[in-house]
């Protein structure tokens, strides 16, 4: 019977600890949510203000890199063995 009481006490202490941790996590989530909302709101305002300048920057980046695309596939050419010499020697 003594073991049951200690187990019950340990379980209750554990549950209290988990409840306080859960509360702290919920508070942190609320703070982070507010920060994310502020950041996204600030970013959207900056994007609306600087939309014209970003178009110009994109054109400049295209010109700097040549505006060429990397091909998806490329055929590699290897020399063929004609049977005359030792290819490893």
UniProtKB/TrEMBL annotation:
<protein>
    <submittedName>
        <fullName>Uncharacterized protein</fullName>
    </submittedName>
</protein>
<feature type="region of interest" description="Disordered">
    <location>
        <begin position="41"/>
        <end position="66"/>
    </location>
</feature>
């Amino acid at each position: 019977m003594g073991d049951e009481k200690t187990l019950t006490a340990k379980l209750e202490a554990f549950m209290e600890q988990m409840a306080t941790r859960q509360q702290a996590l919920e508070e942190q989530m609320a703070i982070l949510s507010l920060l994310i909302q502020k950041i996204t709101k600030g970013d959207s305002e900056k994007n609306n203000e600087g939309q014209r300048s970003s178009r110009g920057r994109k054109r400049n980046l295209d010109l700097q890199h040549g505006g060429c695309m990397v091909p998806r596939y490329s055929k590699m050419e290897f020399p063929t063995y004609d049977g005359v010499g030792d290819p490893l020697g």
